[in-house]
Design brief:
With 195 residues, the protein is an alpha+beta fold. The longest helix is centred in the middle third of the chain and has 23 residues.
Length: 195
């Protein structure tokens, strides 16, 4: 398995894209980007583990109510730094909120493991009228979307009149559209060498 992978899934109220770098068995960096279907918000969370222990969580929410959270843990799992920055103030996190971030980190790592085992791969790029996609990392692809997905994409492209970015999943079981947006998804995609 390559040390840099991309995957994702459809959640109840949005799309989750996951990038993972595992340069060694002792080190994992996971980035999730959650995009709700109904709000112009993007939630990016970076998780890092060393020797099987969560050492940091950094979450940034961009939208109407921006927020950032940073948590760092020592090698024994104790909190060593915490900060929550809202639009106009800083505040501490409760012990329950910290525990929820730790739980969420473990849940996302398990989901990432399962998606990798299932060979679910995330691809992103700019949709072209021909039905091909100019991939973020270079090259072109022709995803095997069903007619509903193609109709959804073309309706979004015609409605905006702007270039349309799409994200989709490919797996042994088929192809699934994840996201179609005028927002440039390639700018959100981390690069392996700087991740």
């Amino acid at each position: 398995m390559p040390d840099f992978t991309a995957s994702g899934y459809l959640a109840d109220r949005g799309a989750v894209r996951i990038w993972r770098k595992t340069p060694s068995p002792q080190s994992i960096h996971l980035q999730t980007v959650y995009t709700p279907f109904t709000e112009p918000v993007t939630e990016t969370t970076d998780y890092q583990w060393q020797e099987g222990k969560l050492i940091s969580v950094e979450r940034k929410i961009v939208g109407a109510n921006p927020e950032s959270v940073t948590l760092r843990f020592d090698q024994s799992g104790r909190l060593s730094f915490m900060q929550r920055q809202l639009a106009n103030r800083r505040e501490a996190l409760t012990a329950d909120a910290i525990a929820l971030y730790q739980f969420d980190a473990g849940r996302m790592l398990t989901i990432s493991d399962d998606l990798l085992r299932g060979r679910v791969r995330l691809l992103q790029g700019e949709w072209m009228p021909s039905g091909a996609v100019r991939l973020c990392g270079g090259g072109k692809a022709s995803p095997g979307f069903d007619s509903n997905a193609v109709r959804y994409i073309t309706q979004h492209q015609q409605g905006s009149g702007e270039p349309l970015s799409i994200a989709w999943l490919e797996a042994p079981g088929g192809t699934q559209l994840l996201l179609a947006t005028p927002e440039d998804l390639c700018q959100q995609q981390p690069q392996a060498d700087s991740f």
